[in-house]
C-alpha cells in the first residue's frame, strides 16, 4: 500500500480559457505542417538533438510506468548500410509476393518501391524496440503491461519532438523486421517496432499532395 509520502504535488502552469484555445489552435496548425519524408539530406544532425528528442519520447505514459521501450540511435554508416540491405531484401519480397494488389494500389500515390536509399542518406536512424517483458538482475522475467500501446504513444511524442526540432522523419516498417534485432544485437526480450530515419529534407524534397481527413470524419461527440 502506497502512502502519501510516495506522491508529489503536481502544479502545472495555469492558463485561462482564452489562452488555452489559442495554444490549442497554434499547436494544431504547426503540427499539421508535419509530413512523412522519403527524400533526406545528408546534412549532419547533432547527437545532442537526437538525445533530446528521445528524452521527449520517454515522457510518454506507459502501463504501470514500466516504460517498455528502447530507442536505438544509429549514425554509423556501416550499420546503416547493413540495415538498408536487409530492409530492401524484405521489401523486395513484400512488393513482389506478400502485398495484395489492393495494398499495392493504395501505395501508388506515394511513388514508393522496394528500394530504400533514405536508410543510408538520413544522418540518423532510430530503431524503436518494445520490451515484451523485462528481466531483473537474477534473470527472472518481469511483466510489462499494454506494451505496444505504450510504445505507440512514445513514438507519437518522438515524431512531434522531431518536428519541433526542425527535422523530418519517416515511420518505416519493412516487415518482418527481425533483422534489426540481429544487426543491433538486441536482447531476446526486445522486439522491433518501428524504424525511423531522421534528418533534414533534401533541397529538392517532394511529398504527395495529400489531405488529412476532416474533423467530422475522425471525431464523434457525446454532449
Can you describe what's shown?
- The chain has a single domain, classed as NADH Oxidase, CATH 3.40.109.10.
- The protein has a four-stranded antiparallel beta sheet with strand order 1-2-6-5. A two-stranded antiparallel sheet has the order 3-4.
- By secondary structure, it is α+β, with helices and mostly antiparallel strands.
- The mean pLDDT is 95.
What topology emerges from the helices and strands here?
Layout: H1 17-31, H2 47-57, E1 69-74, H3 77-98, H4 101-107, H5 118-121, E2 124-131, E3 133-135, E4 141-143, H6 147-164, E5 168-169, H7 178-183, E6 190-199, H8 215-218
Brief rundown of the structure:
Helices cover about 40% and strands about 15% of the residues. It is α+β, with helices and mostly antiparallel strands and about 220 residues long.
Shape: globular
- Segments where pLDDT lies below 50 for 5+ residues? none
| Backbone structural class | alpha+beta
Oligomer designation: single chain
Core attributes:
223 residues, four-stranded antiparallel sheet, 8 helices, two-stranded antiparallel ribbon, NADH Oxidase
Amino acid at each position: 500500500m502506497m502512502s502519501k509520502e510516495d506522491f508529489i504535488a503536481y502544479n502545472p502552469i495555469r492558463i485561462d480559457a482564452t489562452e488555452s484555445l489559442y495554444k490549442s489552435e497554434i499547436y494544431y496548425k504547426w503540427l499539421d505542417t508535419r509530413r512523412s519524408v522519403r527524400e533526406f539530406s545528408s546534412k549532419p544532425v547533432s547527437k545532442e538533438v537526437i538525445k533530446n528528442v528521445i528524452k521527449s519520447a520517454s515522457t510518454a505514459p506507459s502501463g504501470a510506468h514500466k516504460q517498455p521501450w528502447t530507442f536505438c540511435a544509429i549514425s554509423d554508416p556501416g550499420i546503416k548500410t547493413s540495415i538498408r540491405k536487409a530492409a530492401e531484401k524484405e521489401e523486395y519480397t513484400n512488393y513482389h509476393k506478400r502485398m495484395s494488389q489492393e495494398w499495392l494500389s493504395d501505395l501508388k500515390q506515394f511513388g514508393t518501391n522496394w528500394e530504400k536509399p533514405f536508410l543510408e542518406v538520413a544522418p540518423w536512424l532510430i530503431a524503436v524496440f518494445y520490451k515484451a517483458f523485462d528481466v531483473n538482475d537474477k534473470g527472472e522475467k518481469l511483466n510489462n503491461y499494454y506494451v505496444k500501446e505504450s510504445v505507440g504513444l512514445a513514438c507519437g511524442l518522438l515524431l512531434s519532438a522531431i518536428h519541433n526540432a526542425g527535422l523530418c522523419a519517416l515511420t518505416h516498417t519493412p516487415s518482418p523486421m527481425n533483422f534489426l534485432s540481429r544487426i543491433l544485437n538486441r536482447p531476446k526480450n526486445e522486439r522491433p517496432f518501428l524504424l525511423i530515419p531522421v534528418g533534414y529534407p533534401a533541397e529538392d524534397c517532394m511529398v504527395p499532395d495529400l489531405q488529412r481527413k476532416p474533423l467530422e470524419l475522425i471525431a464523434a461527440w457525446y454532449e
